[in-house]
Design brief:
The protein has 8 helices and 20 strands. It has about 375 residues and is an alpha+beta fold.
């Protein structure tokens, strides 16, 4: 299958980005170095082109009812301009995908899904949509998404909009003017833990908006950031990555998603997940820091002191902020408490590690 390109692919090439295949797209993984880009977002401000992400618009009387059926969080508590993190249970105790739910109005919602799962999610939700009065449109190919992240994000963007970015609460959004365009979605969300905004624009607006952000952000040190730094930034916050930390085979309760599993409504797998929550689960997703020198990588074995396997790494890297190896992984419940000693098997060596409370990097 041929890879797709985001609409601003030519700009990333002009900027000298290293382009790699990711989730069916040709995506910029870095422009300079992962370390420099990571630190730029943590300390100043950076812009990611994440236009590979998927967006579905649900409109009609039955839109909320459909969302309530297919997602585990309770979308009935949303108000206009509010965003919610949720996931789609897969009917057998696993996870189809995690996603964001945007309430545009009582009759209109936008679902933002992972790029690798666009077709899978569309097909999954569509099989239930016929039971409800709504229209559902996949606008993924018509929208671009820029994530402007970092402590100076509001200052870097404020000249482009009349919306008061400093007062916009986390996980809310406004449809507002932006860079000379009307009705742009500006959302106080992101995947870095560094603060900032995500900007949804149509394809024909994308180049103008990108250039305006780069120009407005220049006095604040804005730089384009690739997927390499996006991964280390999200890992330092302990945010799950679909395909690594959560999959069709992982339980959301084991993955620590009990906080977005609301039994105030009936949804797919509610009975299975309620039983797991009440009875407990045999393993848990934990964060750990290496006490020995080394870098944990996905699929490395996690062991006890004697080398007996107790789990597996799902995500791991050197933390640029902490200067040590950190990771996420599933371990047997007995080893899941913060402070527990575990070991990462790297070839024939056992590297000592400690389970810690997430996030690794405190805001």
């Amino acid at each position: 299958m041929s890879l797709k390109q985001v609409p601003l692919h030519h700009i990333h090439q002009q900027l000298g980005a290293k382009i790699v295949p990711f989730a069916g797209f040709e995506m910029p993984v870095r422009y300079s170095s992962d370390l420099d880009e990571h630190n730029t977002v943590r300390n100043v401000v950076g812009i990611f082109d994440v236009s590979h992400m998927g967006e579905f618009i649900l409109k009609g009387e039955g839109a909320l009812d459909l969302i309530q059926r297919v997602s585990a969080n309770d979308a009935s508590v949303l108000f206009d301009g509010k965003v919610q993190y949720s996931y789609l249970p897969n009917g057998r105790g696993g996870i189809v995908d995690d996603l964001l739910v945007y309430r545009i109005s009582s009759l209109e919602y936008m679902l933002v899904v992972n790029a690798s799962n666009i077709e899978k999610d569309w097909n999954w939700i569509s099989q239930y949509a016929s039971d409800y009065a709504l229209t559902m449109v996949n606008v993924s190919d018509d929208m671009c998404l820029f994530a402007v992240q970092g402590p100076l994000a509001a200052k870097a963007l404020q000249s482009l909009t009349t919306a008061d970015l400093d007062s916009m609460e986390y996980y809310t959004f406004e449809k507002t003017d932006f860079a000379g365009y009307a009705n742009v979605i500006v959302s106080a969300t992101g995947y870095t833990g560094a603060g900032g905004f995500e900007i949804y624009v149509s394809n024909h607006q994308a180049e103008g908006v990108w250039n305006a952000i780069i120009e407005a952000g220049a006095p604040f040190g804005i730089k384009p950031i690739g997927l390499g730094a996006r991964d280390t930034l999200r890992l330092e916050m302990g945010y799950n990555l679909y395909g690594n930390d959560i999959t069709d085979e992982t339980s959301p309760i084991e993955a620590g998603l009990g906080w977005v599993t609301k039994f105030t409504h009936d949804f797919i797998d509610a009975d299975i997940l309620k039983a797991q929550k009440e009875q407990g689960v045999p393993r848990k997703l934990v964060g750990f820091e290496l006490l020995d020198r080394g870098v944990p990588r996905g699929h490395y074995a996690l062991t006890d002191v004697d080398g007996n396997q107790i789990g597996e790494v799902t995500s791991g890297s050197q933390s640029p902020t902490l200067g040590k190896g950190v990771g996420l992984g599933y371990v047997e419940k007995a080893y899941s408490k913060p402070g527990s000693e575990i070991f990462v098997k790297v070839r024939d060596r056992l590297l000592k590690a400690q389970v810690v409370k997430l996030p690794f990097v405190k805001k």
